[in-house]
Batch of 2 targets.
Target 1
Amino acid sequence: MKIATYNINGMNARLPVLLRWLAETKPDVVCLQELKAPQEKFPEKELFNAGYHAIWHGQKSWNGVAILAKGKEIRQVQNELPGDENDDQSRYIEAVVDEKRIGCLYLPNGNPAPGPKFDYKLQWFERLKAHAAYLLAEEMPVILAGDFNVIPTEMDAYKPERWLKDALFLPETRAAFKELVDQGWTDALRKLHPDETIYTFWDYFRDAYRRNAGLRIDHFLLSPLLAERLTAAGVDSQVRGWEKTSDHAPVWIELSDD
């Protein structure tokens, strides 16, 4: 089973890129972030014609998350992260596909830091850790995938010294991510590629993609029941070089059937 996550950075603006990538790589399940489209503007018909069922939680101009499944039923569990009933930003959606619980998330950026946006990022992280602990306690086969807006270590950034004061790399952010992983999750890309330079995001400025001046901020966390079934993981970095593409590239994993 091939599962992918992709910060699309504008669902309708990037739809031709998404459809091309789906046709070429044929993932079974896809988590999407930054739809930047209200609920009624999601291209459900175009995705269905490409073979994918979808659930989504849109928001006008900002945020937005979705889960796609190729020829499979998707049973939505929730479309918000528990812990704050006043949070109106669409950053989390959770579903069951093929008896696997999949949480698709778009964690807040947090810049400028310090400030209210960074406070919101850390508060959101606390809610995520609480929900993740609940999922582990239930002993479910779980995947948490998406744009975490976290650079976990220095090896996950081109010239990490340039990011020392950025919310993605501040000690509090990295500590929160480590605390999450230490609950018992497996960072899928690092599990299979512990020493490789791997990036998932390249800024539009300063010719970052051509220079491979990137960041690894899109992650797959696997519960123990799925970590033992991990067989492959990678980044479709070539997609970042396509015309009118997102500043992220799709990230994927493959799981064995048993």
Note: The chain has a mean pLDDT of 97.
Target 2
Amino acid sequence: MTEKVVHGIGHNNGPTMEPGHRWRTHQWRSAQRALMRKTIPLSIVRMRMKRAQELGMDYKTYAKVRQASGQDILALMFSSNALRIIGQGAKMPEAREAALQKVRNAKKLSLVYPPNTPKSVLAANRTIDAADFAPLFHEDWSTMRNKVAGLMQSQKLSGSAVLVIGDAPLENEWYTAGKAAGYLHASEYF
């Protein structure tokens, strides 16, 4: 039976530095690596390929976002720039509309710039599930965070389940502000 050694104030009870410490650390790390899978089972790859297709994405992009966030993407949040909704009451181009119509099992959200309003954009673009006002370039960080996270919360989504898709400078900061799964430029998605 070994005795537990109690050290004095200020000692963090870290590992001992007795001879063999480096060897034990090496053994521990080797054992940990051996337990980790080096490949993903084929059935999971197929399932993820199907999910990427449902989201309108290629597998490589989907896998990268999923690995970074640690969970599935449940919503796509587009800027009105990414959707090419420009001008009051504007409707997105048919090609973008068709791409969004193919999305399955995920919400399609949009943050809209003036002069458009969320209400008018939703009326003109039936494929969008929810919309709100986009953060403006002159607004502070907390306002940006509140607008981005607010739309997610209104849909009962955690940020890590939402992929932000934008097209203009500063829109890539939305994913950080909303703690989103990631950011894609519109040219990568469409």
Note: The two ends are 66 Å apart (CA to CA).
